[in-house]
What does this fold into?
Amino acid sequence: MLAEAWRYLVAHPAPFATALAVHVALSAAALAIAAFVAIPAAIAANRRPALAIALANSANVGRTLPSLAVLALVMPVLGTGFVPSLLALTLLALPPIVQNTLAGLRSVEADIVDAARGMGMTAREILRRVELPIALPAIFAGLRTAAVQVVSGAVLAAFIGGGGLGDFITAGIAMMALPQLLVGAIPVTLLALGVDFGFGALQRRLTPAGLRA
Amino acid sequence: MAWLVRNADQVAIAFVQHVGISLSALAIAFALALPIGVWAARNARVQAVALGVAGFLYTIPTLAFLALLIPVVGLGPANAIIAMVAFSLIVLIRNIATGIRQVPPDVVDAARGMGMSATQVLLRVELPLAVPLIIAGLRVAAVTVISVSVVAAYVNAGGLGTLIFNGIATDHPPKIWSGAIAACALAIAVDASLSALERRVRRRRMA
It folds into this structure.
């Protein structure tokens, strides 16, 4: 069966390359937009307890929503295609990044911030040179979770016309064509595992030397 | 909303199916995770292997996992339940093992000193003290299982996802919405009630 899947792949290189490119573009764009929204939002909320609680609570609720339900809720409003899929995937990527950034900033001990302030650092310097470096591993843990979730969610984008590798899976299931199904399922699994591994390595690398266990 | 009211029976059937399949998967996952978690709490190497394997399974995209199972078990609820069990193992094993590991050693020593056997220590001291973390694990696992179950409708496992897929196929937004909103409501309700239970158990521990 694997050999048949390989023959199918070799016979249809262009649709596969397009699907893979769409999948990666969709996932990367959703992750980037979510990071640009979620990290500053969490930093801004960190100093304001009421805002931080509101943000944490909405992230908790967002985290529980089934991925497919989010895609399905977006579709009747925005229609089908790349942009609605991108929006839905961005919504899915926000909660883990918000949760982990908040947790990372909260893990900075008050004594350390006091010491930095005593050394004459401004609030901005404390954020950039003390709080963010300490929170960085947690922020990357959030990005890693979000990235895997987005790659996985992007498979479901096939249901709302978003393209990507999910197209091969849905077509394969619809026609009970197993080789075609595997041409979607195996690469997307490898992609998710690769993203998980890559972000894990990056996370270890970016942990400041003094914080490494 | 009007569609939802007119077709309440259809939505109710899908909802009950959804809860049923999710509960079965959760029960099987817990039955598997409990012995593995206990073993992992005793043995660091077992823990590393168990969490490595379960973490690998958890990383596989849901629809890809369901698709990869088709050549093996075909379409239907069995396929869905295997995938749901695979996805919930990581959090259950991790929380059971961590819950047991965090029991203070002097508590275990005291229990042993009172003449309890290893089994008694496990059943009457370690597991009861691990309950809050185990409930936390069940909460995350339940939400995961509900989420996977929505997608599983695509491999004929039934449930609320069926409404979403039928709605997409027939271009009928009210049906899509009903399925999606019911699935979100179920996930939020389960998450909220299990986290309330967890808080209550924790508070009773403190008293």
Observations:
- Residues 13-46 of chain A form the longest helix (34 residues).
